[in-house]
Design brief:
With 187 residues, this protein is mainly α. Helices cover 62% and strands 0% of the residues.
Length: 187
């Protein structure tokens, strides 16, 4: 049986894998191994009962912190809704909840990081760092991408109002002939 000439199949180049997707699984695995090792070292130095008490205390403290932060966030939201506006200043509720969650996760390293996030100066530093990083990533976002849409939403909806406007493209010059309007999108 004879087959015809086949053309080689070419595939588009795969996009480069991000560093986060490459190293996150390795980092999580290393963190889990380190947590287990540290718990066994503490159990060997003291006793298994002490380790159990530490884990239970971390869980209870984390639950209390998350409950307090959740109540405060709900109270801020409720007050803002009564005023007819949006909540002003999260007050670090997100970082408090993250600290509480890290306290609830079994392990001594996660407990230490969770306790650090409960300290107000650390919260402010982490909050500033996160805000700068997010702003930088949004500025680097490709036009038309998810980051661009998020940035536009932040610009046009700071107080929940939509501002009508006109889109002026940089690629259009004043002397150019007007483009034909595009047909509407259909499903």
């Amino acid at each position: 049986m004879t087959t015809g000439a086949s053309t080689p199949t070419t595939y588009p180049a795969r996009p480069r894998r991000s560093r986060l997707r490459t190293f996150l699984p390795l980092g999580v695995a290393a963190w889990l191994v380190l947590e287990i090792w540290l718990l066994s070292v503490v159990a060997g130095a003291t006793s298994g009962f002490v380790v159990f008490l530490l884990l239970v205390a971390g869980f209870v403290l984390g639950g209390a912190v998350m409950k307090k932060a959740g109540r405060r966030a709900f109270r801020n939201l409720n007050e803002a809704m009564q005023r007819g506006g949006t909540p002003q200043g999260g007050g670090g509720n997100g970082l408090l909840m993250l600290g509480g969650l890290l306290l609830m996760i079994p392990g001594l390293i996660s407990d230490a990081v969770g306790l650090l996030l409960l300290i107000p100066p650390v919260q402010r530093a982490v909050s500033r760092f996160t805000e700068r990083t997010v702003d930088r990533k949004l500025r680097e976002a490709v036009p038309g991408g998810f980051g661009d849409a998020f940035r536009q939403a932040r610009i046009h909806r700071p107080d929940g109002k939509i501002v009508q406007g006109e889109v002026i493209r940089d690629d259009e010059r004043p002397g150019d002939a007007p483009r034909e309007p595009r047909p509407p999108l259909t499903h």
